[in-house]
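Q: I'm writing up a methods section and want to include an example of the input and output format. Could you take the sequence below and give the corresponding predicted structure tokens, formatted cleanly so I can copy it straight into the document?
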Amino acid sequence: MKSILSRIIGGFVIGVLIGQVVQILISLQVGQGTYLPVLDNFRAFFTNETTAFIIQIILTGCIGVVFATSSLVFDIAKWGLLKQYMIHFCVTSIVWVPVVMLLWTPETFKNVIIMMINFLATYILTWWIQYTLSKKDIQKINAAIQSKRNEEGGNK
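A: Here is the clean output for your methods example:
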């Protein structure tokens, strides 16, 4: 339970931080030297900018939580890697795509393509991190097995 809570909190914080970096990048591109805490299309859903900003923080935090907690599918040993990655991809995309479409509404086909490339890049990064961690775990297990075999071989 402590591990899940840690994933939720850590995922939320990382999601918010990444969301703010995205907002800064968007501001640099379209803000004409001004920081845009929220984009006008998203702001239009609310009575004031502060509420829109708070909801944006919550939504970007939720994206982080989903990425952090959905990686638990990789702990289900009876599932093959393909099934694990497919489920992880589906779960993360079900949350990521609508939230990003809502927050940073791409108004052109080019922007939709950029958004999808960003998602795939994020997913690939997440996959790579998970793959690297799994590979290290496998190396540790193999080393422990080899060490045990060497010990047993020496006792005969």
